[in-house]
Amino acid sequence: MKAKVTDPMARNRVTLPLPVDPPFSFRWAMEYLSSSPSTVLENVDPHAGLQRVLYLHGRPVLLVLRSDSEDVEHPALFVEMHSERKISRTICDTGLHWARNTLNLDQNPHDFLKLGKRDAPLRQLQEQFRGMRPVRLASPYESLIWAIIGQQIHVAFARRLKYRFLEHCGDQVQIDGHRYPVFPGPEQVLRADPQELAALQFSRQKSAYIAAVSAAVADGRLNFEAISALPQEQAISHLTKFRGIGRWTAEYVLMRGLGYLDCIPAADIGLRKAAGELYGLGRTASEKEVRDITEPFQGWRSWVAFYWWMALQQNNQSAK
């Protein structure tokens, strides 16, 4: 697909279309991101779209996802790339790959939609959030760090820790006259003093976990490309061998970092609450009950989890 240069005088700005089979809702992706505790580096604006800076082939690039249509049956999506220097074909291809992965544009939803025909609560969510697809994080390493930071603490406190982590370990880059934070690589994280993280209210254990997994990624013992080729249970088994990664964290990374279709982080308190509400339990479901309820959805449990999270977010906002 040929890139369109939006400014003929400056090849540091490129726009690419993002074809996708309907239904697809950019609105629901933005709604999810606007209230997700993992949305720290992304700027979500109803008019400007989703903005995020990534290092692509060693160069900071501002990527903007936007939609020119609110019709889920006729989506019109684009990714814009902005840089202080000329954008190469290689950077265009990598930016396009990020955009399609982030919005799950290459996963056809038709088989998922069929599941709603035999499950009334899921059908209701599919109708309410028509065209929504799971939104992935920028990298499996980022999803792993966010998951570790969020372990066993309230989401609001986890969000504060994520901002502190970025300020302490990440970069700040300038593009088009604006400054943007950039997620650090494992080598940058390893340079952080654990005592300094403790001063930011990171527990000693959590600081040790972050250092351990960062070292494993840096030296190749934790290789996400190799993990992505494994069947799901083997991938979970491999991840949980590393200090700081339990089953919930592993499932979260496979789902949001690597795009596995059939993960259900059943120990997640949000999913347990959603299951209890949606299926009339009158209480928070147990981890086993979440797995039992989602058993008929094999092959699409990551999508089911995402819809449950979205339902919980909407209910929480309505209650405010």
Automatic annotation (TrEMBL):
It comes from the Bacteria. The keyword 4Fe-4S does not apply. It is an enzyme of class 3 (hydrolase). Its EC number is 3.2.2.21. GO terms for biological process: base-excision repair, AP site formation; DNA alkylation repair. GO terms for cellular component: cytoplasm; protein-DNA complex. Residues 149-313 form the HhH-GPD domain. The keyword Cell division does not apply. SUPFAM superfamilies: DNA-glycosylase. Belongs to the alkylbase DNA glycosidase AlkA family. This is DNA-3-methyladenine glycosylase II. It comes from Acidithiobacillus thiooxidans. The lineage of its organism: Bacteria, Pseudomonadati, Pseudomonadota, Acidithiobacillia, Acidithiobacillales.
